[in-house]
Specification:
With 144 residues, the protein is of the alpha+beta class. The protein has six helices and five strands, in the order ααββββααβαα.
Length: 144
């Protein structure tokens, strides 16, 4: 059974992570400085989120914008496709990106070296995500 029952639940929990990250200087500064448009395409349930670090942010307090849905008008530099359950594990720090790319659990389009360069930038999110889930009353979703 999938971790998230539908796109709304995926967007609620994973969206909270992106919303925190876009305002956190430890994470957001490095992503903003990349000047990349990064799109995550999730399946089971389906959801598409785009990180726009190529343009100045329009969202309050953000260092980059986070946009949900197909129609952002942006062409991603990097596309990362995966099942939502893989993303859930990844944001817990439980997925090795290189191994997941090799096993095709995550499919990347775009410059892999740029993707790998961003890994240290997102590392604080591995602690942020389970903490957010606990704060949201979803201890049952936390992976030990």
């Amino acid at each position: 059974m999938a971790i998230f029952k539908d796109e709304a639940e995926l967007r609620y929990y994973v969206g909270a992570l992106y919303d925190r990250a876009k305002c956190d200087p430890a994470v957001a500064t490095k992503i903003r400085d990349s000047k990349l448009v990064i799109q995550f395409r999730y399946d089971e349930p389906r959801g598409i989120v785009t990180i726009n670090a190529a343009s100045p942010p329009t969202q309050p307090g953000a260092l980059f914008d986070v946009l949900w849905g197909d129609e952002t008008g942006l062409k991603p530099d990097i596309e990362m496709s995966m099942k939502a359950d893989v993303a859930h594990q990844f944001w817990h720090g439980k997925v090795n990106l290189m191994a997941a790319l090799t096993r095709r659990q995550i499919i990347a389009k775009g410059p892999i070296p740029k993707i790998l360069k961003l890994l240290p930038a997102v590392e604080p999110m591995y602690a942020m995500y389970p903490a957010l889930l606990r704060d949201m009353g979803r201890d049952d979703l936390v992976i030990s």
